[in-house]
Amino acid sequence: MSTPTSPADHVHSEAFLARLMRDQLRLSIACALTFAVVLLALPLLNYFQPELMATRVGGFTLTWLILGVLFFPLVWAIAWVFIRRSMRLEEQEAAAAKEVSR
Amino acid sequence: MNPLLAIGAVDPWIAFFSLSTVLVTVAMGFWSAGKSKSAGDFFVAGRSVSVGWNASAISGEYLSAASFMGVAGMVMTSGYDALWYPVCYACGYLFLLLFIAGPLRRFGAYTIPDFAEGRYDSPLFRKIAVCFVLFIGFFYTMPQMKGAGTTLAYIFPGLPYWAGVVVVGAVITLNVSLGGMKGITLVQAFQYWLKMFAIAVPIFVLAAVVGHYHQHLGANRAAGESAAPETAKRLTLPAKAPSDEQWIAPFGKLTTKAVDASVAAAKDPAAKAELEASRKPYSLLYTYSLIIALVCGTAGLPHILVRFYTNPDGVAAKRTTMWVMILIGVFYVFPPVYGVIGRSLAPHLYDAVGAKGTDKIVLELPTLLAGEGHPLLGSILSGITCAGAFAAFMSTFSGLLVSMTGALAHDIYGRILRPSSTPEERLRAFKWCAVLIGTVSIGLGMQVEALEINFMVGQAFAIAAASYFPLLFMSVWWRGMTMPGAAAGMLGGGVAALAAITLTSISDVAAAGAKKLTDATALAAYWTDHPMGATLRDLWLAHPLARILCEQPAIWAVPLSIFLMITVSKATAARVPGDIRMKMLVLHAPESLGLKQEYIKEHEGLPH
Prior knowledge:
The complex is a heterodimer.
Chain A lengths: L6 H5 L2 H35 L1 H4 L2 E2 L2 E2 H40 L1
Helix pairs in contact in A: 2-4
Chain B lengths: L2 H6 L3 H24 L5 H8 L2 H12 L2 H14 L5 H24 L4 H9 L2 H33 L5 H19 L4 H27 L2 H6 L25 H5 L4 H13 L3 H30 L3 H7 L5 H20 L1 H11 L15 H4 L10 H43 L5 H23 L7 H25 L5 H33 L4 H10 L1 H12 L1 H8 L2 H18 L8 H9 L6 H10 L4
Helix pairs in contact in B: 2-9, 2-10, 2-19, 4-10, 4-16, 5-8, 5-17, 5-19, 5-21, 6-14, 6-16, 6-21, 6-27, 7-8, 8-9, 8-19, 8-20, 8-21, 9-19, 9-20, 10-19, 13-14, 13-25, 14-21, 14-26, 19-20, 21-22, 21-26, 22-24, 22-25, 22-26, 24-25
C-alpha cells in the first residue's frame, strides 16, 4: 500500500474506496442473506414439509402464523441491526480518514 | 337508478366520515401550500419536520388503495398465497434500506432522473428515465383510480363506477394543480394515522363481537384434518368460493390457476395426468416470481424514492427508515384479518367480481355489526373504514400525480421543450401538466373496472422490479456500468416484463367478455372477433408454464435486465465516466468527510 502524503490523497486513493465499498457491501449482503434465507426457505418448507407447516398453533397453521404475523418483527430486527452496524461503520471510516490527516 | 334516490339511501355516518376526509385533505393541502412560498420550500419543509412526522408521511404515501382494500380482498379470494403481498410490500423496504437508500441519499439524488443524469453525466439518459417515471406512474395510478371508483360506488349505491373515478380524480387534480407539491408532508402524515386508525379500530371491535382472527382462521378445515380446530360463526360458502383446504394451504387457487385451466381443458387422460403432476412445481415457481417482483419492485418504485429523503440529516434519516418499517409492518398485520373474517361472514362477495366483489370487504365487513344488534356501531365503523379508503387512494394518487407532474413540467417542458422558459411559465406549465396527467389517469382508471386492484399493483411492481431495481442496484455497486449498459438493461427488462404482462391482460379482458355470453353460437362469433384473445387462450391452455411466466415475469425479467447491463457495459467500457472514482466516493463515503461539497465544486467548474 502506498503511503498517503495528504488526507485528501488518502480519501481519494483506490484502496480507500475499495475497502469502503467492500465493508459496506459485506454488511448489506450479510443482512440480505439472513432475510433471503428465511424468505426463500418458507415456500420450500411449504413444498416439502406440508404436514409440518400445517400444524395448528392456536387457530393458525404454522405457515400462516410465520408469514402473516412473525415475519414483520424479523424484518424489524434485521433493519435495526443493519442501521446500528452501518452507523458504527461510518463512524469508523470517518475516524480512519481523519486519523491519517493528523 | 335515479341518482337523487341513491343519495337519499346513503348511510349518513358513512357519508359524513368520507366527506370529512376529503374536506380535511383539501383544506390541509391549501393550508400548507399557503404556508410555503418559494419553489424550494418543499425540501426545506422536509428538513424542519421531525423524524416522527417524516416517517408517518413516507408511510402515508406508501400505503395505497391496494394495501388498504386490495390485500384484504385478495386474502379473502386466494387465502394463504395472497399473504405474500403484504409481507413483501413491507420487506421490499428492507432491500431499499440495505442496498440503495444510503448511497442515493449521499449522492443527493431525489429522483431517478436526477440520479440517472448525475451518475452517467448524460442528459439523454435523464430523458429516458423521465419517460419511464411517467410510464410506471400511470401503471400504478390505475389501481388507485379503481379504488376510488369502488369506494364511491359502495358509499352511494347506484352511482356508476366511473363517477367515483371522475370525482376523486378531479378533486385531487384540482388540489395538486392549485396547491402544488409544497408542504404535502403534513397531509400525508395525517393520512397515515387516519389509515392506521381506520384499519385497526374497526377490526378490534368486530373481533370482540363476532370472534377473533385465530377463531375464524381455525374454522377453516385444512387437508388431513377430520374437523376444523376452532369454531366460529360462518355462513354457507357459495359454489364460487375456494374450498377450505385449498384456501388455507399454500399453493392454492392464485398460483395454480393456469394449470387448473389446462387440466380442465385437456382431453387426453395421459396429458391430463402430466399436467396434474406439474401443478405444484409450477405453483412454487409462481410464488418465487411473485416474491421477486414485490421485493425488488418496492425498491424500484419511483415515487417512494422521491419521498425517502425529505430528511437530509444522515442519523435522522436512518431513524426515519426504521420507523417507516415499523409503521408499515404494523399496518400490514390488519388487512388479512378482514379477509379471514370476511370469508366467514360475507361469503356473498365471492359471487361478484372486482369492484362489487371481495375488493370491498374492508368497507362492507363493519356493517355486519348491524346483524349482531349494533346497527349504529356498524355504521360508524363502516364510515371510518370508508374514510381510511379515501385517505389511501388520495394520498398515493396525490403523491403519484405530483411526481409525474414534476417529471413532465420540470424535465420535459423545462429542460427539453423550453429550456429558456421563465419560472412563471414553468409554474403555469406545472398546473397544466397536473390537469393533463389527472385527465389521462381518470381515462385509464375508467378502463380497469374488471381487474383486481392488487393484481394491477403486482404488475406495476413487476415492471419496476425489472427496470429500476437493476438500474439502481448496479449503478450504485458496480463502477463498470456505462450509460448504454444502464439504458439497455432498464429498457430491455422493463419492456420485456411489460410485453409479457400485456399479453396476459389482453387474454384476460377477452375472457371477461366471453364470460358474459352463454349462447354457443354467439360465443363462437365472439372468439372469431377476438383472434388475439383466442390464440392466447389456446396457447395458455396448451402451455400453462408460458402463462405463469407471462403473468409473473420477474423471475426471468430481473436477471435478463442485469445480464443486459453487464454485457452492454462490458462492450462499451470506454464510456465509463472519467470521474467514476469520485462518483463512487460520493455514493459510499460517510457524509462527514464532506466529499459531496467537493464534488459539487468540481462540477461547477465544468462548462455545461
